[in-house]
Amino acid sequence: KLPFENKSFDYITICSVLFHLKKEDMDTMLNDSLQLLKENGKLIVLTPTGKGNFLKLTKHSFSIKNSSVYIWYRATKSRARLWTNENYLAEYALKHNLNYKREFVMKGFAQLEIIKGINLRASGIAIGTEPTYRNRPKGRGIKPVSH
Question: Measured between alpha carbons, how far is 60 from 72 in angstroms, rounded to an integer?
Answer without folding.
Answer: 15
